[in-house]
Amino acid sequence: MNSFAQRLKKLIGERTVSAFARQVGMNESLIRKYLSGSEPSISKAAQIADKTNSSLYWLATGLGCQADTIDQVDDKVLQSALSIVQEVARNREIPMDNPKLMKLVFVLYQHLYIRRQSDGFIDLRKAVVVARRMANEENL
Fold it and tell me: Where do the HTH cro/C1-type domain residues begin and end (predicted)?
């Protein structure tokens, strides 16, 4: 979804604009203005995201996951994070039982989960670069 208006329409779903406006605590005319292509302030976008349990990052950019929380583990993303961390550990001769590696898997998983594309695509080349940078920050 390329525009804020498209993402807002998705959040509204089958409800009326009036009902949605009440849910998020805004005037119906303001919601209609956003649906017509106006961009909200950060505080207004945050208010919409908060009241709809949506990710502000997704609402603002269209990237990542619509939901504000991760309700379940995405096996593909977890496997990607684990494989990348294993590769980093192997290249640096770090034993896999190092507790910092588990933290690295967790942080990389969150990073990949948020930044995956709507079709599930994960840019593994960028992910490896991110993992190496994270490993450097953890002195691994």
Answer: 16-59
